Amino acid sequence: MSLRDEILNAPAVPLRYLAELNPRPNGIEKETSVYLPMEAISEFGPADTSRRRPSVELQRGYSYISNGDVAYAKVTPCFENGKGLVAADLPDGHAFATTEVTVLRPGSMLDKAYLGWHLQSEAFLSGGEARMTGSGGLRRVPDTFALAYKIPLPSMATQRAIADHLDRETARIDTLIEEQRQLITMLRDRRFALRVNVALRGTTPAAEAESPLPWAKTLPAAWHVVPLTSVAALESGHTPSRSREDWWQDCYIPWVSLHDVGIMRGVKYLNDTAQHISDAGIANSSARLLPARTVVLSRDATVGRTAIMGVPMATSQHFAAWVCGPDLDPEYLWVLFEDAMQPFFDSFQNGSTIRTIGMGDLKAFRIPLPPLDEQRRIVECLDEETVKIDSLITATERFVELSKDRRSALITAVVTGQIDVREGA
């Protein structure tokens, strides 16, 4: 009998008859136990077991997991991303996890690894996603879905053969994916190093001198270092009163706000914004309509995000803006903000605390100022070289996604018997 026939002829048994749901501990002897928050749980790979908390605290209101149990994340987007684990080699033999996981303890008829692979199959993931309840980021797969989910129950030997095959084959794919992810990291590092090097050294070799800037060790000796305010007019923004709905409805003037920082990383020109204001809103606030090619920089929340206005815009008070004079190309200033000055901007964040770049800090900005034609050569060089690296990154990312799709398809094919692993084992 083929594996497909065996699985098709095997009884499809609801998990409620094959596994215990969310088991509770009988008693914990250790004073501390491993704690697994969601970030410690991978996509059915090794869990980070480095965190420990007092056992007496964890026994109330946390999910209990012992070696041999199988757990999966039930909250979006962790469920869709396939987060979970087959518990093995846990310190002390057990751990406590966030309540956003569902724990299943397989009985004698169900192999734990076979169950773990089924929980990563398309049938389980798509079925669970369709049955999520709640709204927004609080959507969850109800435990009743897992209890009712029917799993084919071939012989224990076949279950183990399926699990062993998937262990081997997915390990090969995972190794390939990890190698490609390392390549992406290397390419991004190379991209950043290239952009910083060209921005601060120019397009042709030249004698260098020690830099007076804390974020640049050396600069071409012929370049000047100048206050940014000497070559660009510094502008700040404002938020018109929210109580005046007419200043915010049916408006056409783009208004740069914190809603836009998410799309600004790596984007040179910002041509539209999430929110718009009216002429009356500008007239009755400290906001000003700034010309196209003004360079904006986020002052807080996500310090250092930057872009060039593609059209006239106003900004909120969370941004500073520079209207460049004739000696400064806005695209060169953007390159400095986007890459070379990022270590400087990072200094405004200390751990989890971020402080605003105040007007005093902004007025004190100094930049290297190569001749205008060299600024433009730098921008052209970086545009040309960066697109080559970006193409490699995009192609590698696409390869990773295809490999992940192949992995998912393999899991589904094997657990449904489309591949007879007993013959290839």
Automatic annotation (TrEMBL):
Keyword Metal-binding attributed: no
Q: Which residues form the Type I restriction modification DNA specificity domain?
A: 222-384
Q: Tell me the GO molecular function terms.
A: endonuclease activity
**Coiled coil located at which positions?**
none
Gene3D superfamilies listed in its UniProt record: Bipartite methylase S protein, DNA methylase specificity domains
One Pfam family hit: Methylase_S
Alphabetically ordered keywords of this record:
DNA-binding, Endonuclease, Hydrolase, Nuclease, Restriction system
Q: Which InterPro entries match?
A: Restrct_endonuc_typeI_TRD, Restrct_endonuc_typeI_TRD_sf, Type-I_RE_S_subunit
Family membership noted in the UniProt record: Belongs to the type-I restriction system S methylase family.
Q: How does it assemble?
A: The methyltransferase is composed of M and S polypeptides.
Q: What is this protein called?
A: Restriction endonuclease subunit S
Whose protein is this, by species?
A: Streptomyces albidoflavus
- Lineage, broadest ranks: Bacteria, Bacillati, Actinomycetota, Actinomycetes, Kitasatosporales
